[in-house]
TrEMBL record:
Domain Response regulatory: 5-121
Alphabetical keyword list: Phosphoprotein
Database matches in InterPro entries: CheY-like_superfamily (IPR011006), Sig_transdc_resp-reg_receiver (IPR001789), ST_Response_Regulator (IPR052048)
Protein name as catalogued: Stage 0 sporulation protein A homolog
Positions of post-translational 4-aspartylphosphate modification: 56
Native source species: Ruminiclostridium sufflavum DSM 19573
Known function: May play the central regulatory role in sporulation. It may be an element of the effector pathway responsible for the activation of sporulation genes in response to nutritional stress. Spo0A may act in concert with spo0H (a sigma factor) to control the expression of some genes that are critical to the sporulation process.
The keyword ATP-binding is assigned to this record: no
GO biological process: phosphorelay signal transduction system
Amino acid sequence: MGEIKFVVVDDAVFMRTLIKRMIEENSDYVVVGEGSNGYEAIEQAKKYQPDIITLDITMPEMDGIMAIKGIAEASPKTKILMVSAMGQQSMVIDAIKMGAKDFVVKPFDKSRVQQAIENVLKTV
């Protein structure tokens, strides 16, 4: 399959760093870009055409839910993996309806993140 490209989008720098480390533990995965809000997510999608974007739901300026449509238009092949805090189930359901492929809930463990990535890669 070759190298899988990721963009990590979260308004918290420590969360981006944590997710990036978990992703890059797999030698076939590379994080090519990062963002801190929905606008940056769309720009990164346009610029890098990543295979997967991890997208936080709650962010300033433009949240993850609002960014899904823009990402889909900017990079139609990119798959979206939502990252949510506890208690955001209804937003996660909305995100899945809009095209997100899977989700992880913070605080998350490495095995769940890896499983979610594998699930997303299997989707068409």
